[in-house]
Amino acid sequence: MSELQRVTVLAGGVGGARFTRGLLAHLEDAYPDGTGGSRVAVTVVVNTGDDMTLNGLRVCPDLDTVMYTLGGGISEEQGWGRDDESRRVSGEIAAYGRGWDWFTLGDLDLGTHIVRTELLRDGATLSEATEYLCRRWKPAARLLPMSDQPVETQVRVGEAVDEHPAGALIHFEEWWVRYRAHVPATEFVQRGLEQATAAPGVIEAILDADVVILPPSNPVVSVGTILNVPGIRDAVRQTAAHVVGVSPIIGGAAVRGMADACLTVIGVETSAQGVGLHYGARRTKSAGLIDGWLVDETDADAVPHLAEAGIRARAVPLWMRDVPATARMAADALELAFE
Ligand code: FO1
Known about the structure:
Elements: E1 6-11, H1 14-30, E2 41-46, E3 52-54, E4 57-59, H2 61-71, H3 88-95, H4 107-121, H5 126-137, E5 142-145, E6 152-157, E7 169-171, H6 172-178, E8 185-191, H7 202-207, E9 211-214, H8 223-228, H9 232-238, E10 242-246, E11 249-250, E12 253-254, H10 259-265, H11 272-279, E13 292-295, H12 302-308, E14 312-315, H13 323-338
Parallel strand pairs: 1-2, 1-9, 2-5, 9-10, 10-13, 13-14
Antiparallel strand pairs: 3-4, 6-7, 6-8, 11-12
Helix pairs in contact: 1-2, 1-13, 2-5, 4-5, 11-12
This protein binds ligand FO1.
């Protein structure tokens, strides 16, 4: 494999964060820099479509999930939020009848939202605020928000629920957390997308990479949202890098979260093959996004169909049960990239 120098990952929350943790572990092992790190530079472009302003604070769920996961502060059992968390302040907020009682901001997590909000109010961009917060967590990768302008994923509900009439637009987190995606949705709308531009460094991180990876994040509301930011989809199509994706669907079911509910909304089959074809082959007239696609061993039958569509696929174990297993997956993705 030619000397690998730069890898860029387009990530959402838990799946993208855990995959990147495995990627960094593999790179430290395969490309050591002699001081415990790796000589390969990793950039994570993170979805900000889940962001919201809650109790006056700017909350960035996916940026925080990646930062905590790579920085060692994540709640491992939840996959999001801080470890050793408590909820005293959110209890007080609820006692005042404020906030979303179905969306808890933990006491330690609030520290992040308070500092970020203070920085933004003092004129920092989201990129600058993220860089500041990462000075504490020291993730072994550069974290870039997909955009410094606010983009919020809204979900149009297909039927009336609680105080929302049919056809209403609600915040993605309300659909995801309050309703667990069980309320039928008819479309996703990224509010603010038209005014959004890719954050500084994002386009270059995609064009200058040796490998661009679409990790097993939600292909619709996480990776899809990042790709919808003006300029990003074209950068992925044009980059000289190898572009490899990792299926978030194993054996016809979403690995976690409710990616299947999201795929149904946009009419994509919930299968490793369906998502791979949805991203599309890059080197064909379909002007797709990926050159390679990792599917789990249970989906090996998809490999020839993907090959017919111009996508080089391989079937490998895709369960991110621990860091070593995820590091193996990341190694498989890099090997596929250079095949
Ligand atoms: N997920 C939940 O299921 N319940 C919550 O109360 C909740 C709170 C929360 C607070 C901060 C944060 O960064 C994430 C939080 N999440 C919660 C997870 C969140 O829904 C997901 O991290 C992503 O938005 C989906 O990938």
